[in-house]
Amino acid sequence: MASESRISQVATTIPVRNVQDLAACDAGELTAEALERYIRPDIDKDAVLYEHAGELPVVDLGRLLNPQHWDEEAAKLRSACEEWGFFQVLSHGVPEEVMVNIKRDIQEFFQLPLDVKNAYAQTPGDLQGKSLEDYCDELKKVAHSIVEAIAKILNIDPELTSDKYVVQVLRMNYYPPCMSMPEKVLGFSPHSDGSFLTILLQVNSVEDLQIKRRHDAWILVKPHPEALLVNVGDLLEIMTNGKFKSIEHRIIINPRKERLSVSAFHNPKFDGVVSPVTCTPTEKLLYRTVKVEDYITHHMSNKLDGKRALDHVKVF
Predict the structure, then answer these.
(1) CA distance 209 to 191
(2) Coil, strand or helix: which one is 264?
């Protein structure tokens, strides 16, 4: 538990008005000053390739765990981590009841009055009760299976990624609609995750997640309704010496509908280190060994700006 509690202490947050409350206020209150921090005039600087929205790789976890299909599915997983940094996971084994319950409870949570939500935030151990606990337990199994497969693909000691060295942190996300200027507002600025792996559950069907591909173009993610979305984090990129890529992603804003999701960040424990263990003697070393706490602190303490946080540990 010490590792989990320290995560909330590594960086301070800027006090800003609750965005759900801001979105619900009268148009007269939406002054330029109130909206300034959310407006991105360069949002359309790079192209969005909507025609590629259905191309995100799919990995079938059931087949990945079946020795008869291992080679084929492992090749898909490797390709997804090397070329995309994002993939969908089907046959993940999370019971439908658990998925239904967590989605329902998150939607109900964000419908609560602001003061009630704030009270919950002071006691996260009670937040959403059993549904959240059940979801966390199931997600740990999914993460374990994926990480174990990655260790096998990379031919590294499974002990380096075993469960006794990891911690999981959940974040519930709410992105309100913006009718006035959705084309100039981002729900989340472009960034890569400072995790080892991130597993995302889309609570509703709003498709506002975009990932950056080659030539600085964005692709809209259209996830399968039964899939979990998984992306490579910076710490996995460091461990693989850049072979597996953490990818920039951002959240655009829907003009009419809110977007709800829950992100699970799968990390090594804070007192551990991450090294580019897959680097061979003939490869150029891209990243230095870094303490997990130092990297996450650096990532959370700085403005989101693409993959710039990784510059902190690059070998130049």
Answers:
(1) 12
(2) strand
Please count the CA atoms within 13 angstroms of the CA of 82 that sit on its side-chain side.
10
Least confident window among 28-42, 99-113, 254-268: 28-42
CA–CA dist 13, 217 (Å, integer): 30
Overall pTM surpassing 0.85 (yes/no):
yes
The pLDDT tens digits for 131-169 are 999 999 999 999 999 999 999 999 988 777 776 557 888
User: Token match 């911690």: residue?
Assistant: 167
3-state secondary structure (DSSP) of residue 56: coil
**Is 194 part of any domain?**
yes
Q: Identify the domain containing residue 30 by its residue range.
A: 16-312
CATH number at residue 264: 2.60.120.330
Q: Say how far apart CA 4 and CA 292 lie, in whole Å.
A: 13
- Phi/psi for 201 (5° steps) reads -110, 120
Domain membership flag for residue 7: no
